[in-house]
Amino acid sequence: MYFYFRSQDSEKVLRPTWEQPPCRASKMAAGSRRAPSDVRESAPRVFPPAGSANDRRTSNMAAKFCLGLIVALSLISIISSMQMAGGAININPDRADVMNAANFAMQEFNQNSKSVFLFKLLKVLSAQSQVVEGINYFLDVEIGRTQCRKGSPSNAQSCNSEVAQISVCKFQVWDIPWLNKKTLVSYSCKSHTSFGKGKGHNSLDERVQQRIDVN
Q: Half-sphere exposure of 91 toward its Cβ, with a 13 Å CA cutoff?
């Protein structure tokens, strides 16, 4: 490429581009360069991978679901524990602990009975237990009045005399095993069958409820 310049004597001079005047070349060179202060290095933009927003949304939903599930299971566990601690459940009346509670109830019953005769345990009809501070036993038992009098050498269970009367009783026994303490909380009895002449002993027809603490 060639440039034409007009000199003072109006003559046209053809010069190649590499022979441009120094001032012109210096201006072009200066224009092509930028001062270091004007140069701004832009940081590369990092774009999140496709679908990352959906992944975060899914993760948040999963975390909320897990948290809700944990809370629900905790509530179910608490409610179940409360039901176990507060509700009475049916148990086998032939269990050893049930028989111990029933025999204890019979001893306390004989001590507090107004009858001059001893009563003995015939059968545990049904039993329930309730977990409290210890164990509550709810017993339905069948007892019989013997011919052995109170104060005799033999106790009620070893008395071999014929049973004169059968009654059905409800006993509530509170047992605290670690304190070795039992309490006859309440009892109520009703005559079921009488033998011999007359209508039998009717004192047990009245419902009785009382609390007896035994250390």
A: 21
